[in-house]
Amino acid sequence: MKVGQNTNVEMLAAKLQQNAAQQAQQKQNGTASEVVQQTRSNAAGVPVTMSNSARSLDQNSKTSSDVDMAKVHAIREAIANGTFKVNASVIADKMLVDASALLGLSRA
């Protein structure tokens, strides 16, 4: 490194030039949402039909949840209050059941 040479300034200048070039390219191409909208408007429309069972699955997924949010909130409160207790034996038992099921499936 030469005395008086400031590589940080040179790196910053290079980065600024790179950013300016990227911004110019983005202005030329348009924003991502503009590109998506153009693609949607240019795409040929293909009719899609859904079966009744697919519609019912879609409705069920909107109304039911895989997560019990009441339980999640209760656990969060217990953790925040410092009253949440971990039952190590229950966790160990479930881990053993899962491991034995996994090993049973891999042997079959």
Automatic annotation (TrEMBL):
Top-level lineage group: Bacteria
GO biological process, one term: negative regulation of DNA-templated transcription
Residue intervals of the Anti-sigma-28 factor FlgM C-terminal domain: 48-96
Biased composition (Polar residues): 30-42, 49-66
Record field: transmembrane: none
Ranges of biased composition (kind: Low complexity): 17-29
Name this protein carries in UniProt: Negative regulator of flagellin synthesis
Keywords: Bacterial flagellum biogenesis, Cell projection, Cilium, Flagellum, Repressor, Transcription, Transcription regulation
Keyword Transport found: no
Task performed by this protein: Responsible for the coupling of flagellin expression to flagellar assembly by preventing expression of the flagellin genes when a component of the middle class of proteins is defective. It negatively regulates flagellar genes by inhibiting the activity of FliA by directly binding to FliA.
Stretches for region Disordered: 17-67
Family classification: Belongs to the FlgM family.
Organism taxonomic ancestry: Bacteria, Pseudomonadati, Pseudomonadota, Betaproteobacteria, Burkholderiales
Keyword Repressor assigned: yes
UniProt xrefs under Pfam families: FlgM
